[in-house]
Amino acid sequence: MTWHDRHRVMRRATAGRTLVLGIFGILTLVFFRVQVINSSRYQLQSEENRLRPVPLRAPRGLITDRDGEVLVDNVPGYTIAVLASDADSLRATLDRVANILRLDSTRIDELMRRYRRARYEPVVIERNVPFELVSVLEEWRVLIPGLVVQTEPKRRYPYADTLAHVIGYVAEITEAELNSGLIPGARNGTLIGRYGLENQYDLALRGQDGVRFVEVDALGRTVSESPGQSTLEAQQGDTIRTTLDVDLQRYVAQTFPVGRRGALVAMDPRTGDVLAMYSAPTFDPNAFVGGMDTQDWRMLSQADDKPLFNRAIQGLYPPASPWKLMVAGSALRRGLVTPETHMEIPCRGGLQFGNRYFRCWRERGHGDLTLREAIQFSCDVYFYQLGLRLELETLLQDGTQMGFSELTGIDLPGEVQPVYPASTDYFDRKYGPRGWTQAVTLNLAIGQGENSQTLLGMVRFYAMLANAGGAAPPPRLVATGAPASRSLGLGERHLAELRRSLLAVVEEGTAARSRIAELRMAGKTGTAQNPHGPSHGWFIGFAPWEDPQIVVGAIVEFAEHGSDVAPLVANVMGRHLMGEDAPTIRSGNLDLVVPADSAPAPLPILPDSTLLRSSTPRRTRT
């Protein structure tokens, strides 16, 4: 072999060694990167394949009354979930437990969609599962791969239907809500507030979920807990302290006329604190815990008496005679009358206006009255004439200025906007420029016609009448700062005259049967005409008259006479101010009773009622 041949061989050998060393160097770098630099990432992937996170649901925060009495809390409940390696495995598992858990095809399809959104999370099948059913599933655990049974906090409403419309209830988030992204921090299975304070303060009550890990095999079957992995504990939501007086609320629920529809609101006029809010008929929020059967939900939501309807903030009613205080206040402020002013035409049972005869509630009439007496005896004929003096534009302007076309601003979802025209443009649009007459003025002057108010809105108005200066803060269920007050714009002299007139209503007027000797009360009865049945009864009052500490309003549908509602309100004010020793006033027409420490009687389904939004003049009674 020549020197050139040996040299060529050596070069090739050197190149081969260099290539081999280079390959080994690259492999060494790759292995170093995998084993050292990226080891944590690959370890995480391995752990994710072996370990599955199981969310630990946070207990929702407590809700208490003003004195710390617990109104809503949590108790342990069982939840059934499944960890699946793939969609086929999940469907097979669901088919196995369908008979035990009563899963229909619709429910199974929904669970499959949930799985596709979060494949590595357990799919929650049922909440609030009875222990007996849990025992059955545990016996079949070998045949149910991926079964997860754990305790979760379950919402409990100890006062049930007594506080249903105020507290509300919770339910699992829907697929549409998850996709919307409008609920921060929500995920599969999150319980959110659906109604009442549970909804209003949902984010604060919800808390922060935790997580624990379980070890699964290649088929997705649970092998064991993984104590070596850190567990993030759930954090309970905030406690919400309300302004409610639960003893007073329970008293209202027990004494509200059995089988009647309506509502009652009690409020501290000085602060706006709602002490009690009750709507009848009611419902049991505990029925929603763990999910409600479709048929049960349909029966509840479509019931003729609408138990889910909060009549205190959602019912719109003609304000009837309690509204006359707004008309009187407007006329006093503008100097059109004094408390001693008489009208040109005395009341003889009605007033002829044009070709129509507008009746007073008292067929034989009231005679010649002053403004104070017209309020005391609720004379419609007097207020027909007073409305004509004010004129329609003034009625609309002053009513709007006093807040009758706006929400009260209470911290409760679902409040309905009152119906009150801001100007005569409303009538032009509805009836045409020449399609209406001054009859609408007479109608508005007695609280009928294009005027529909909520009970809470009227209670706020009477809180302003009760307070010095004619101003009151908005109603509230949770005290959060000091919101700005709204004022009626009336001087103290005029307010004092109106308060004296309201005192006379209870002392010697239309609510005299509701007088409590030991307690001076002021208030106004009213009866709203209802074209679909008997009239609705109003009473709104405050006490003590010298220094008002509570204002209470009630509306009872089909009560026929506002004077029959007055005892209900008087009893609530007496209970709050005088305690359990307060005398009880009874009203035979509404069957008012005071049971001793018993739950409210179940409310039967009554015929349907359509809330009045009448545009034709009608007479009102008190």
Mean of all residue-level pLDDT scores: 84
Rounded to an integer in angstroms, the radius of gyration calculated over CA atoms is 35 Å
Largest sheet: 5 strands, mixed
Structural class per helix/strand content?
Answer: alpha+beta
What distance separates the N and C termini? Answer: 133 Å
Number of strands: 19
Based on CA inertia axes, which overall geometry fits?
A: elongated
- The stretches of 5 or more residues where confidence is low (pLDDT under 50) are 42-48, 593-622
Classify the beta-strand content into a percent band.
15-25%
- Range of helix content: 25-40%
Instruction: State the helix count.
Output: 20
Overview of this protein structure:
It is a single chain. This protein is α+β, with helices and mostly antiparallel strands. The protein contains 20 helices and 19 strands. The strands form 6 sheets. Strands 2, 3, 4, 5 and 10 form a 5-stranded mixed beta sheet that branches. The protein has a 5-stranded antiparallel beta sheet with strand order 12-11-19-18-17, sandwiched between helices. A 3-stranded antiparallel beta sheet has the order 1-8-9. α3 (87-101) runs antiparallel to α4 and α10 packs antiparallel against α20 (566-578).
